Amino acid sequence: MTLFHVVTVAGHHVDDSGSSRGISNTADLGFLLKARSEHQVAITGGKTVRAEKLNSTSRCALCLVSNSLTSLSLPLMHPADGHDVLLASSNPELLVAASEKIGIECIEIKEGLPLAQQLVQSLGALGLKRILLEGGPELIRAFVFDQLIDEVHLTVTRSSTELSSEEARSIVSSISYLPNANDTLAVSFDGVNNYLVWFPSGVAA
Question: What are the extents of the domains in the chain?
């Protein structure tokens, strides 16, 4: 599983409106779309979908993790781009409504069991094994806890110069929900963003 995330050099993952749109840019979006095209499914949460106003799965299937009935009205739940949308939830009422009224593929999440492991196993059973994680801190933390993230791609915006390894590690360590950066950490700079890549297990995926 690959985690794709964006933060500012100050470590913020959203702007004042609660969206990452204000801290992202065209170059970062290009990397995200490329990452989606290289994976079979992207996992994200309901809060992220609402904040980002996502209305398309774009490049791969998307698995929405949500327990809110308001998710049924999200434009994303009625895709027009030909890509699949899956709903993962522990809310029986939401699962029934999504399956019967919208025709969405549903994944039942059992309370008391690790969320991340259930998602990976359920998606794998559907043949979706190349997974991209795009969620917010809460969702990322669940996958970090279960040690399911193989590769991290972190875009650092609002930086005018290339980060040193020490500066990059400092940013990562200041963000509590991210996997620790180890000796595999690599940093590249395109004049706009710093791109940090590392493998939490120490071994390339």
Answer: 40-129
Q: What's the mean pLDDT when you consider all of the chain?
A: 90
Q: Does 82 score more than 70 pLDDT?
A: no
Q: How far apart are CA 66 and CA 72, in angstroms?
A: 10
Which residues are paired to 197 by β-bridges?
Answer: 153, 186
Contact 122, 46 (CB under 8 A): no
Q: CA 88, 106, 142 angle in degrees (round to 5)?
A: 15
DSSP state of 163: P
pLDDT digits (tens, 9 = 90+) for 120-140: 999 999 999 999 999 899 999
Distance CA 32, CA 48 (A): 15
* Residue 18 contacts residue 182 (beta carbons within 8 Å): no
